[in-house]
Amino acid sequence: MRVLVVGSGGREHALAWKISSSPMVEKIYCAPGNAGMEDLGECVNITPEDVKTLARFAVEKKIDLTVVGPEAPLVMGLVDEFQARGLAVFGPTAQAARMEGSKAFAKQLMLESGIPTAPAEVFDDLEAAMRCLRKKEPPYVIKADGLAAGKGVVVAQDDRQAYDALKACLVDRKFGASGDRVLVEDHLEGREASVLAFVDGEKVLPLQPAQDYKRVGDGDTGPNTGGMGSYSPVPFVGEGDFRRVVEEILFPAAKALAARGILYRGVLYAGLMMTSEGPKVLEFNVRFGDPETQALLPRLKTDIVEVMKAVVEGRLESIPKLEWREEPCVTVVLASAGYPGTYETGFPIRGLEEASQIEGVNIFHAGTKRDAKGDLVTSGGRVLNVSAIGPDFAAARKRAYDAVARIDFRNMYYRRDIAQGVV
Question: 3-class secondary structure for 309-343?
Answer without folding.
Answer: HHHHCCCHHHCCCCCECCCCEEEEEEEECCCCCCC
